[in-house]
Design a protein that fits this description.
78 residues, 4 strands, 36% strand, globular, four-stranded mixed sheet, single chain
């Protein structure tokens, strides 16, 4: 697994899937193009939602993993 320099960490654990996406989209406005954001979420729906959101917005989903009910997404800002 590559090591990324994370510009921002977003903790969306406990938030329902749409709220995790909204929180991430809002936070992405604070980072520069090319910077990397790491998101933690617990809603299982976020797995497919983040994949679709990244495709739709042009952000690059670099990595997606799950461990014990927590999902981690590593996203490069477009």
């Amino acid at each position: 697994m590559p090591v990324y320099e994370i510009a921002m960490l977003i903790d969306a654990r406990g938030a329902a899937s749409p709220a995790a996406i909204v929180k991430t989209a809002h936070s992405m406005q604070s980072v520069e193009s090319g910077e990397i954001v790491e998101v933690y979420a617990t809603d299982p729906g976020t797995i497919s939602d983040f994949e679709a959101w990244a495709r739709k917005t042009g952000h690059e989903l670099l990595e997606s993993s799950s461990d014990g009910g927590t999902h981690c997404f590593v996203i490069r800002h477009r």
